[in-house]
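Query structure, 700 tokens:
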């Protein structure tokens, strides 16, 4: 009979209630299954021994054979530490203990040969090893050693309470003993065959107790593949179920508004990418399924017009549509832009945001419910319960990464059956990340900028070059252009940032005095009305310079602004820098982005600045960003739990991810309900994961 892997960890021989509690609270290990899935962080070679004179100042983990020649206690700020001199035939080093000194002192003997293992420190001319793993040479020689000994994730508390790596290894061995190392297969024979994967049992054995480096590599590959495969399976299934279960409103016809606009009022020729994406959207809207599509397009790629033309499809089919933006400024801008386009078409459109007056709100609510209002533009205000549509057919979210998943789903419930949903983002997400985070959405990409755009010239300048920068600004202003100067504003240090901004504003005001120059300022502490007013002055060309915090990061469109100066540029993330730069380069003139920094720059900051100077391709920048920061910090992925991957890494294991998605897709295409006998293992595993909610670690 096979062992039930859902057995609580307390039942494993050698664990007991105390250790079970610690394993639960420190590592989240509740069951046999959890323990088997505690994969080593890394492997070390315990067949290799160092001599003291071979040590390097690199904090490496090493194993050394030697003799303790004496103990002494050293007083320090809090308590004291126990130090032992440890000697081999090449030199002397120190072993140090801050805790458990009495026990150590009693159990270790002067003159005895020990094998020690641990991290070395180099401090005031000497090597030392704090809290080494230590055993007599005799015991050591009696143990089986391998060139790849597993090192498990641990916590300080665990090691303080005596649950060392050795203890975890012992418990793991016990688990393999009780289960006889036999585990149910979780992938289909054909997948295993095609990819030449080793069996689940072999993979688990070799991940914990690698026999050879080759087997370890194959175990890692197989387990990474499996982990990514089930995430993809889940996401694709969600998408399929969604499409079959949730009816969308069929937008059957392409009607008068769309055609009139397309033939007579389109302000420019659409790019091929825009046309392609419109076709993809049209196909979704015309099918019987509800659309759930992510539209990715770099800053300035022209997503707004695609959104508007999708809205026209909705209106031609008798539905209301809404567009939600993350900031009031952006909602105003969309409203102004789209109102212009609506005028010749005789379509009603309103704006609802935080600064809408009660009377306006009341009117909007009324006209939404009686169906007189066709398009509603706004901010989060759209999500309020009071906002009820007569027949919302299409909801569009701009700059999706600014909103949470919860808000996306709230829009769903604005109608008895959910409207079609289009989410747009100008923060390109690397493909692997998109596949993992938005894998349940269909994805469209605008990968082409409108013709005639001049690439923005980006340079990096140090603060001591400021006078040249001022001169450059004056020349540009003399040519009739406008300039943004952006200061960082990071919440934790808001006061300080605010001071930077105000200092900057003052020095700019001195350098660019009135009445010759007019300066606007916009920051997060201003009232929405005041922000709006200043933004409008700049947009209308009444001011030459806009001093601002990152509130202008998203979406703002002032085509005459041709210079973006970013102060303390090293404090911004790459995608944010790219977003900010996207505020210029929107008109016919040559545009510039100047990244200002001090001379103090870390490696990471240098890479960010160099990337900005080198590339204007949002996708390339996003790839670098992902490499620098890891997936956890990339916008919009914080809530996705993608960090909880056990063994795979979506940056490093990109190829495995691609193939996992490919296999998941092919299997579901052939057998959407996983009913075929050869998919039984997959179905069972999938059900198990749901039952025990493992998969929800990844996906909400
Ligand atoms: P984003 O994708 O960043 O939201 P917008 O939709 O704001 O970009 O478009 C940026 C600018 O490009 C706008 O001024 C818009 O009118 C213009 N634009 C969009 N599509 C085209 C096109 N096909 N040809 C020329 N200009 C375009
Ligand atoms: Mg936009």
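Result returned for the query:
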């Amino acid at each position: 009979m096979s062992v039930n892997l859902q057995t609580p960890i307390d039942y494993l021989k050698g664990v007991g209630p105390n250790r079970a509690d610690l394993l639960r609270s420190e590592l989240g290990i509740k069951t046999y299954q959890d323990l088997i899935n505690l994969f080593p962080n890394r492997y070390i070679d315990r067949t290799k021994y160092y001599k003291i004179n071979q040590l390097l100042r690199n904090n490496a983990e090493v194993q050394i054979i030697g003799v303790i020649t004496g103990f002494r206690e050293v007083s320090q700020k809090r308590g004291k530490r126990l130090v032992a001199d440890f000697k081999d035939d090449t030199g002397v080093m120190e072993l140090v203990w801050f805790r458990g000194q009495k026990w150590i002192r009693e159990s270790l003997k002067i003159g005895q040969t020990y094998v020690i293992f641990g991290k070395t420190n180099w401090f005031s001319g000497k090597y030392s090893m704090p809290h080494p793993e230590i055993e007599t040479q005799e015991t050591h020689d009696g143990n089986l050693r391998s060139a790849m000994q597993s090192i498990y994730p641990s916590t300080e508390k665990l090691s303080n309470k005596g649950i060392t790596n050795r203890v975890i290894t012992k418990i793991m061995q016990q688990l393999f003993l009780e289960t006889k190392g036999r585990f149910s297969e979780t992938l289909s024979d054909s997948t295993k065959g095609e990819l030449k994967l080793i069996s689940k049992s072999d993979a688990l054995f070799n991940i914990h107790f690698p026999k050879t480096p080759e087997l370890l590599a194959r175990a890692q590959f197989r387990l990474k593949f499996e982990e990514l495969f089930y995430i993809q399976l889940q996401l694709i299934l969600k998408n399929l179920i969604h499409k079959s279960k949730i009816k969308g409103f069929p937008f059957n016809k392409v009607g008068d508004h769309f055609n009139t606009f397309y033939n007579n009022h389109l302000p420019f020729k659409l790019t091929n990418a825009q046309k392609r994406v419109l076709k993809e959207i049209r196909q979704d809207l015309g099918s019987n399924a509800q659309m759930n599509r992510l539209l990715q397009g770099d800053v300035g790629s022209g997503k707004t017009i695609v959104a508007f033309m999708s809205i026209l499809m909705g209106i031609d089919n008798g539905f209301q549509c809404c567009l939600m933006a993350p900031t009031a400024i952006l909602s105003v801008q969309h409203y102004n832009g789209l109102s212009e386009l609506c005028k010749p078409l005789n379509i009603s459109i309103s704006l609802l945001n935080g600064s809408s007056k009660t009377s306006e709100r009341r009117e909007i609510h009324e006209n939404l419910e009686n169906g007189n209002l066709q398009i509603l533009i706004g901010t989060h205000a759209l999500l309020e319960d009071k906002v009820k549509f007569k027949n919302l057919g299409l909801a569009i979210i701009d700059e999706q990464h600014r909103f949470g998943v919860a808000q996306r789903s709230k829009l769903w419930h604005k109608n008895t059956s959910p409207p079609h949903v289009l989410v747009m983002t100008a923060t390109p997400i690397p493909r692997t990340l998109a596949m993992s985070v938005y894998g349940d959405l269909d994805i469209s990409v605008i990968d082409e900028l409108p013709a005639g755009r001049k690439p923005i010239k980006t340079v990096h300048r140090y603060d001591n070059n400021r006078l040249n920068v001022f001169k450059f600004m004056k020349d540009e202003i003399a040519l009739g252009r406008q300039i943004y100067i952006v200061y960082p504003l990071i919440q934790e240090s808001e006061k300080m940032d605010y001071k930077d901004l105000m200092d900057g504003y003052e020095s700019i005001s001195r350098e660019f005095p009135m009445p010759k120059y007019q300066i606007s300022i916009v920051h997060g502490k201003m009232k929405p009305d005041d922000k709006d007013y200043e933004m409008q002055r700049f947009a209308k060309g009444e001011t030459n310079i806009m001093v601002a915090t990152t509130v202008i990061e998203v979406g703002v469109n002032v085509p005459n602004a041709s210079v973006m100066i970013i102060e303390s540029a090293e404090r911004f993330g790459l995608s944010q820098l790219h977003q900010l730069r996207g505020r210029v380069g929107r008109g016919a003139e040559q545009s510039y982005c100047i990244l200002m920094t001090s001379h103090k720059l870390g490696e990471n900051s240098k890479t960010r600045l160099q990337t900005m100077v080198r590339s204007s391709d949002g996708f390339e920048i996003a790839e670098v960003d992902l490499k620098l920061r890891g997936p956890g910090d990339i916008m919009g992925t914080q809530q996705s739990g993608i960090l909880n991957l056990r063994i795979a890494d979506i940056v490093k294991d990109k190829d495995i991810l691609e193939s996992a998605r490919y296999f998941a897709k092919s299997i579901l295409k052939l057998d959407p309900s996983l009913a075929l006998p050869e998919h039984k293992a997959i179905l069972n595993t999938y059900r198990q994961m749901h039952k025990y909610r493992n998969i929800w670690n990844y996906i909400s």
